[in-house]
């Protein structure tokens, strides 16, 4: 019996387990997925918890519910992977052999990497919203908050879901406006980037929106430490930004098992061929989702589009054929802009987000880089699609490769 093992039962790992369960011959192949948690989190929903849009029950489900019956689920920490021997050592002492390995270990926040972030103000006036625990704690804090300086800060890039800080500050603008205290809240976005987003055209459009909402933006700010006593962000060049409430995106790093296994770069991301999704070091290892070092967004949509390419290339590798499927870095994301509206971006390695309609010319129905009610509805509908389509490895009516249909080419 040949063995395929998937490390990580998050979005990418669960999706791949479902896809490959339908395609691999059960008489020849066994599939095992390893994860330490019994709960599967809908991570895009964490953003909505502090503003009362979602409740806890909306973002958590039993992990086992989404794993196919034919796939073995092992709940365990992983000590290390010894790729030269095709072996995985579990924390409980077990050793597993594999013929092919899919790494889907994701990325995680590392507040310990920034001096002062885990100081006495952690989860008092300093909160993350990228974990379930952080979002729940912030929910309790923000509901009775009466105003002051709310700062949304990005520590370093890359980080998971690059539009989430923008969404958070847009939703905060709407939340405090609806509470009638927006005039008592000063909103500031602090970023190490030179603009609100990584792509120039999107940055121009989103910056206009930030200006209309009277949201301050401080760019090129690299956080060196957080002064808990005086509630200040301090940059490497000694600039300071004061806050009363800080919603921060900590440094992101890949899973520590990647470091222990010697499979990653300095940030524990696995060097991956950006087109074939094969490990650059080991031909029987493929990598997907946030665990890779490929130059595109760390987002669920990327995992979905990449999953189709990885599936085709893995089957080719098993059959001894060339890896001809090529991932183009396709990513798209709805961006909440508050007050029941949202915008949408769609891009890849070579084409930045452009205005227009999606997925079809003229009829859309979604608008690119333009806030609309329909885009907001699309964002909310995505949660149902996530649980019922994406995780289960089913096809979405969107091609894995980015299309220029409906897009309007422009320059900044």
Overview of the structural elements:
β15 and β16 form a beta hairpin. A 5-stranded parallel beta sheet has the order 5-2-1-9-20, covered by helices on one side. The protein is an alpha/beta fold. It folds into 3 domains: 2-108 and 253-318, FAD/NAD(P)-binding domain (3-Layer(bba) Sandwich); 110-251, FAD/NAD(P)-binding domain (3-Layer(bba) Sandwich); 331-390, no CATH class. The radius of gyration is 21 Å and the shape is globular. The protein is built from 7 helices and 24 strands. Helices cover 23% and strands 26% of the residues.
Brief digest:
This protein is α/β, with parallel strands linked by helices and 412 residues long. Helix content is 23%, strand content 26%.
Give the strand tally: 24
What global shape is seen?
Answer: globular
How helical, in percent, are the residues?
Answer: 10-25%
CATH superfamily of the largest domain: FAD/NAD(P)-binding domain
Helix count, DSSP H or I runs of 4 or more residues: 7
Look up the CATH topology of the largest domain: FAD/NAD(P)-binding domain
Radius of gyration: 21 Å
**Order of neighbouring strands in the sheet with most strands:** 5-2-1-9-20
Mean pLDDT: 96
Name given to the CATH architecture of the largest domain: 3-Layer(bba) Sandwich
- Estimate nothing, just give the exact number of structural domains: 3
| Proportion of residues in extended strands | 25-35%
Query: Gap between N and C termini, in Å?
Result: 56 Å
Any descriptors?
FAD/NAD(P)-binding domain; five-stranded parallel β-sheet; 412 residues; globular; 3 domains; 23% helix; alpha/beta
């Amino acid at each position: 019996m040949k063995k395929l093992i998937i490390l990580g039962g998050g979005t990418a790992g669960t999706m791949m387990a479902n896809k490959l369960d339908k395609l691999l011959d059960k008489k020849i192949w066994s599939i095992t997925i390893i994860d330490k948690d019994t709960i599967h989190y809908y991570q895009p929903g964490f953003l909505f918890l502090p503003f009362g849009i979602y409740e806890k029950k909306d973002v958590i489900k039993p992990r086992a519910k989404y794993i196919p019956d034919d796939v073995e689920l092992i709940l365990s920490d992983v000590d290390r992977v010894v790729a030269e021997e095709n072996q995985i050592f579990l924390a409980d002492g077990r050793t597993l052999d594999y013929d092919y390995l899919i790494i889907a270990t994701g990325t995680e926040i590392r507040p310990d990497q920034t001096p002062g972030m885990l100081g006495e103000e952690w989860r008092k006036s300093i909160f993350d919203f990228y974990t379930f625990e952080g979002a729940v704690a912030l929910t309790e804090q923000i509901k009775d908050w009466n105003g002051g300086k709310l700062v949304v800060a990005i520590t370093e890039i890359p980080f998971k879901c690059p539009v989430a800080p923008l969404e958070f500050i847009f939703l905060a603008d709407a939340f405090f406006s609806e509470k009638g205290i927006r005039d008592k809240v000063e909103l500031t976005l602090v970023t190490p980037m030179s603009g609100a987003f990584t792509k120039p055209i999107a940055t121009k459009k989103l910056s206009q929106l930030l200006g209309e909402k009277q949201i301050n933006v401080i760019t090129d700010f690299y956080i060196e430490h957080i002064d808990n006593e005086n509630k200040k962000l301090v940059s490497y060049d000694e600039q300071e930004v004061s806050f009363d409430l800080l919603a921060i995106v900590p440094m992101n790093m890949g899973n520590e098992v990647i470091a222990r296994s010697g499979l990653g770069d300095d940030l524990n991301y696995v060097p991956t061929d950006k087109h074939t999704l094969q490990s650059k070091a080991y031909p029987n290892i493929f990598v997907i989702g946030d665990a890779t070092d490929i130059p595109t967004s760390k987002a669920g949509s990327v995992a979905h589009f990449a999953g189709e390419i990885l599936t085709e290339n893995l089957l080719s590798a098993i059959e001894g054929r060339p890896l001809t499927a090529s991932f183009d870095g396709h990513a798209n994301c709805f961006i909440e802009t508050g007050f029941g509206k949202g915008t949408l971006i769609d891009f890849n390695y070579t084409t930045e987000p452009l205005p227009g309609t999606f997925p079809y010319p003229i009829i859309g129905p979604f608008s690119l880089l333009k806030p609309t009610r329909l885009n907001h509805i699309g964002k909310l509908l995505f949660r149902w699609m996530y649980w019922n389509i994406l995780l289960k490895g089913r096809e979405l009516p969107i091609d894995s490769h980015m299309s220029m249909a409906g897009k309007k080419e422009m320059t900044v």
